Amino acid sequence: MMSPRERRENSETGFISEHGVLSRDSAGRPRAEAECDLRTCFQRDVDRIIHSKSFRRLKHKTQVFLQPEGDHYRTRLTHTFEVSRLARTIARALQLNEDLTEAISLGHDLGHTPFGHAGERALREIYSEGFNHYEQSLRVIDRLEKDGAGLNLCYETRMGILNHTHGSPEDTMEATVVRLSDRVAYMNHDLDDAIRAGILTEGELPPAISRRLGERHSVRINSILENIIENSAGGKIQMSADMQEIVDVFHNFMYEAVYYNPKAKGEESKVQGIIEGIWEYYVSHPEKLPEEYKSLADEDGLERAVCDYVSGMTDKYAMFQYSEIFIPGVWQMR
């Protein structure tokens, strides 16, 4: 009698196209392990990511706006969920592996720093080996999670996460879908947040974007996704030429109006000082590192361990650490 996993693997041949990845065809995990009777290998990857500590920390990591006042701004976690939903919509329509798509989506930002890309730039300048969040995401998965044992995810999941920013000639179709969905998600939800924050108004959006994509958040997203689905065939995930042109206009507009906006980014100059201060303290006082990072320092080097510790912090914890290290406590007299 077949297990639920085996039935699922057999059924995939009926609804996953020749361009998608069948679960039973995975290149496997870094360390071999027995298969689960209930879940395919990619379903297990999804569960391992969701149950990881680094995934839970995403809820307290900046997406774009540092310390926004209000409950409705995106965080790195809500961004991740939005990417996952967009990517799964495309994957389902194109008969790709939804479970692999979801795993890549949920894990793609696990290595992101506190304070968003401002924190990433700060660590890149400080750490002698350089820093990229997509490379750190793979290190989190392979080296840091589960007390150094890593999550032991499938090759296809790991490579999709590693290459989610720039892509790779070896990408699966599912990985390409996630890379496009990441861009579609952040452009649209960052615009939504910028309008909520008073950085922009709907009227400042270039008319060509509204004409081609629509005047509402959901309509703009749907226009892009429909175009990707309609124009992807023969093993290629792509937009039409005119859609790619307007998406590029949208992308450039967001950089000029939001990502480089002095009002939106006015607090980011402080991030360098916070990250650098914490970094230098722990490099100078390695005995103050948590025990697991002391072990990492012994095995991988002190700077690597400090980089892992700092990059894993949430915004709130980084500010708490900075305060504990550099701001005198209150002296109470009795």
Question: Short description, anyone?
Answer:
The chain is mostly helical and 334 residues long. The longest helix has 24 residues, at 173-196.
Describe the structure.
The structure is a single chain. With 334 residues, the protein is mainly α. The chain folds into 2 domains: 37-233 and 246-265, Hypothetical protein af1432 (Orthogonal Bundle); 269-324, no CATH class. The protein is built from 17 helices and no strands. It has helices spanning 4-15, 41-50, 53-57, 76-93, 98-107, 116-126, 133-144, 155-162, 173-196, 207-213, 217-231, 241-259, 262-265, 269-284, 291-300, 302-312, 315-326. It starts with a helix and ends in an 8-residue tail after the last helix.
- CATH level-four homologous superfamily name of the largest domain: Hypothetical protein af1432
For this structure, the CATH topology of the largest domain is Hypothetical protein af1432
Helix and strand element order: HHHHHHHHHHHHHHHHH
Count the strands? 0
Key descriptive features of the protein:
334 residues; mainly alpha; Hypothetical protein af1432; 2 domains; 17 helices; 0% strand
